[in-house]
Amino acid sequence: MPRKQALICLVAVTAVALAGCSSKKAGSSSEDGVTSTTIHLGAVSPQSGASASFGDVTTGIKAYFDYTNAAGGINGRKIDFTVLDDAYDPSKTVPQTEKLVTQDKVFAITGNVGTKTSQAVYQRLNTEKVPSIMASGDPTMVSPILPYIFEGLAPLDADINEQIAYVKATYPGKKVGFLAENNDSATNELSLLTPAFGSLLVKQSTFLLTDPDLSSQIVALKNAGAQVIIFNGVPKYLALAVSEARGQNWQVPFISNNASVDSSFLSTAGAQADGVVTVTGFKTDPADPEVVKANDILKQYAPSITPGPLSQEGLAVGQIVVAALKAAGKDLTRSSFLSALNATNISSGVFIGQATMSPTKHNPYGCEQALQVKSGVLAPIGDVTCGS
Amino acid sequence: MRSVLHGHPRLVGLVISALVTWLLNEVLFPTPLNGYLVVLFAYVGGVVVARLSRGDHRYAALGPLVPLVFLAQNSIGVTELTQILILAIAALGLDLITGWTGQLNLAQGIFIGLGAYVTAILASKHGWPILLTLPLAGLVAAAAGLLLGVLALRFDGVYLAVLTSAVALAGPVLLLHYKSITNGVNGIIVNQPQPPGAFADWLDTDQWGYYVTVVMAIIAVCISWNLLSGRIGRALRALRDSPIAAKGIGVDLTRYKVLAFAVGSFWAGLAGGLYAMTIGFVSADSFGLFYSIQFLTIIVVGGLSTISGAFVGAVVIYELSTNVQTIGFATTVNGVALSIPQAAVYAILLILVVIFAPKGIIGIFSDKSDWSRLTQRLRGGHNRSTDVVQAQADRPPIVRLDAPEDPHPAITSY
Amino acid sequence: MLELRDIVVRYGPVVAVDRVSIRVEEQQVVALLGANGAGKTTVLKAISGLLPCASGDIAWGGGVISKLPPHRIVRAGICQVPEGREVFAGLSVYDNLRLGAYLRRNRHAVRSDIDRMYEYFPVLAERRDQAAGTLSGGEQQMLVIARALMSSPAMLLLDEPSLGLAPLVVQQVFSILRRICDDMRLSVLLVEQDAETALSIASYAYVLEAGRVVVEGSSVAMQGDESLRRSYLGY
Amino acid sequence: MHLDLQLITSGLAIGSVYGSIALGLVLIYRSTGILNFAQGEMATFSTYIGWSFVVSVGMPYWVGFLLAVLAAFLLGAVVERVAIRPVQNQPHLTVVIVTLGLFLLFNALSLKFWHSDVRPFRSPFPSGSVHVLGTYISWVSIGIFGVSLISMAFVGIVFRFTKVGLAMRAVTSNPMASALMGISNGRILSLGWGLSAAVGAIAGMLAANRLLLDPNMMQGVLLYAFAAAVIGGMTSPVGAVIGGLVMGVTNALVSSVSWIGSDLSLAATFIVLVLILLVRPQGLFGRQIEVRV
Hints:
The complex is a heterotetramer of chains A (388), B (414), C (235) and D (293). With 414 residues, chain B is mostly helical. Chain B has helices at residues 2-5, 9-28, 35-52, 65-71, 78-100, 108-126, 130-152, 157-177, 179-182, 205-229, 231-241, 243-248, 253-279, 289-302, 307-323, 342-356, 360-364, 370-378, 384-391; strands spanning 188-189, 281-282, 327-333, 336-340, 399-400. Chain B is built from 19 helices and five strands. In chain B, strands 1-2 form a two-stranded antiparallel sheet. Chain B has a two-stranded antiparallel sheet with strand order 3-4. The radius of gyration of chain B is 26 Å and the shape is globular. Mean pLDDT of chain B is 74; it is low at 1-9, 28-33, 369-375, 377-393 and 403-414. Chain C has a domain at 1-77 and 154-160 and 187-235: Rossmann fold. Strand 5 (399-400) of chain B pairs parallel with strand 10 of chain C.
């Protein structure tokens, strides 16, 4: 009996060894994904699970592509955009991204959403020479610069620097508490807050997306004597934090990150939202023509979602991709697309200021603006700051 | 022909399923076919052949493994198959704990995480060769599994489910907290190893990772198989089928329960090491409760207490959870097309599989099923159940001890 | 009157009961005898609707009941005392008895019937608030009989009431049983391995072997036929 | 000192949410013997139904509330009939997988129909807080606490004093014998699921204002509710509510310990849970019945 099994194991291992003498797989080639009528693009984002809301980014990108197709496409070609689901699990992001590259033979990856999921694929995409735009905001993926990797969301450090500047100017000498989701962006933020505030940073308190409420975090911040709270997280938890603090009759000012003050926050927090400050690299005035246009596109081509910061940022990614595809000309190749991306210079969109990229700058944004909720509406406070 | 092959039905099954795969892949479907479909075909082929040649269907568990090696050539879905095999190795471990010793374990994912961190830390921070870290990843997870196994002895049923889910919840939180070791929420990037020396000309990184995983899967299957077909296997089977009787004949329940946890966690740790190697990025929040629950669905859908069930289940669950598409309808309401979202399709399919194949997909092929009767008939073998029915045809007359006119005298009447 | 006409019951492909016909007249006690595995319990389960009949039918009180679910059969007046003392272990003796009367709406009558059961089985009265699982084997057997009687059935199906009980307890149970049958004018189909005891209370009997009726006749005739007793009844 | 009291009251407030979901778990466990992983997601789905009645359709709050509870009852009964009954006689693990499938299904459906944005859902209780002993307790929390006590009493009364409750206990205890008592097991199991879903809907709609309504509203709660039900002994409604309060307060208190903090509080809370179970494996209110065979 054992001999027979040993024999089988041997056969199996030999078969593996023999099959090892096969040819190296084809990989991707420079002509992938472009035909005379279509450009095949792809992205992997969470469509299911607890982080499914991040999928709004790719929904926004797809809306802009559909809008472009309806307007006649790009140099006679239409965009065919495939979005695959990874449920925000890196062990699925890798195969799904590989599937886009080797099986669907996409021309480029435009908008892989999420930090940990993008971390798992960006180096291999660079090795495979697939032009890729990540949607994470994580600065580490574009510094140092990799030739094929670009970033499509506003850089987190610009947001954070704007938050710091606002707090320093408005609440000098006040004790600062930091409330954040326990994730990489919070760690990143803390590494910038600590040198900026020193001993004034009296408490950092974190939460998980499985926490049903924030009462103990708020009590801890209050106990530590915090006078200003810098927040980093999603809209729901900002609303929970504000209502918990106000429920304890604590009128502490909240300075929140980009994207957490959206329509769902404003409607759930209601009157308690007044006074909350946020920073953003995107336009928020509902009367602004760019915002009106963006919302019209989203309403027409993505009717299943409510327009919000994530879908608008997705729309902006779509805008940059389409501009670069147009600029790359009729004779579209990956190298002409890369050159066009590196020469990105778009003067108007839902973003504040200009979107520019160069061979040394692979994130198009950098301008920030502080805003405050007044009577349920976001109003700009202070000036736009650009660059660092 | 049969006499020549007699005694080696498994080898026949393996060889034929390998051939089936090759045919499917190279001849019948010159356009790339999804890897998992090929594996499913190959598996079914392997089972049929193993059965027709009087082998036990369990031995066809190796069926899908051998043909897998051919798939890499086609360059389709290598990374996907790698991940499926990694899931299967960990599921094999969980099956030992949950399927064979009946301990509901919702924490398998955290042991994978543990193994992944061991590999990631040793390879990235200390420069170890990745292959060397794999056994260590398994051992560290096994040690942790041993601890949990001892703790689990105190609990049963729902309580064990809550204990293990507590571990599954607390594990990632603790891993995130000890930043100096685990790099916290930023995770650890692992440089994927290049194929060594002579292989470098033929294989790229993904293919190398794939072959390493295949070899590990084969080792895992061979060891599990040896374990379960011998004395321990008999004891575990007795334990599962009748715990009280097993205790009565001197099977040491405690020892096997703890042993199952340790060995099961070893496979999880090994799978974790392979995860770190092939994904190239490890972060603790990837190994939460829902990740763990996935393995439970794998072994139930595949078939509890079968080695092949872990592999079939891994294929089915992975494909259901990633490749199922939204089902759209032509009807629209307010301009929005009606559709069943992907996650709902997955959920519905999962429920349907469990309802219609309660013993798992492997159960469809098990001895008491219609399938086995069909193959028995194909082989012209005896079918005991038809014998029973036929024997009923003639029956002896009933002996009546009383006159038939008044057989039921009532005692009283009212 | 209960009448089984050529019923067949299968477990998958295996035929457990093969064309069995049995009649129980009103207020008659009929015994169903046979060795272990002869199919006696299967017959009772088929009558109660716990197992489907593959063919044949079961008539009761002018209608056919072989397609009804178990709870409708209880409603029709047939109640089974299952083998192996199937009490509701975690529930009190009192709750077990209340469950016996689940289908009855007249609370007053139910309460007085419970008191009546306490009279028949005084030991149950003593243990009325105790969890049924903590009773001894004999007490549990009494409880399941009392519980079945609480539904005020017209017909009682008794499955091996003597199984696993000490001979003295068996005598006790059967003497109470006979008293109850007379008091309540019950029809009884009694399944037993202990043929001697069963024939002492039944008026007619069937002997089952390998799922088939091999002998039937009055108890008197059975008790008198020595070769039959030797070969089938084992006493 | 007064801030520690604040922690305890906050813990009690969230704990009563855990308790009210745990009640539904206990109801199903006691009437069908199943650990229902989909309890929280079904409650979320029912809450959305209530939200649609009140906000989208514009019904008066309590009318929408009652309709949603009714809808939840039907939903629970239908789920039992369609998904659970076919696997009722299968091994326990198989049934667990079906409830996991239901978890995924209802989560996906909530996401599909109502999308992932957080939605405001007003509470029937007044806004604002009471100031007692230096702590602030919101009226919403007091309301949730009160209703969870009422639900608890309701579930307790159903089990202890009604014929249906007796039948539920009988069906879990011995399904074969209960069928022989004339109990329609199927109907009782459907009823158990229906009631449990209704209790979940009540908890969900009242807690939605505090937890904020989104498709994942109950995922964090469910884990604590499991723990609460287990601490309470799995079968005791009183135990479930007290278990919920214990989990809420424990979590609040451990997070205030400086070397644990909020990022380790989840782990610490579950370590406390395991310690409690090591001392009392049957939970605080569970009874172990010695069964003689």
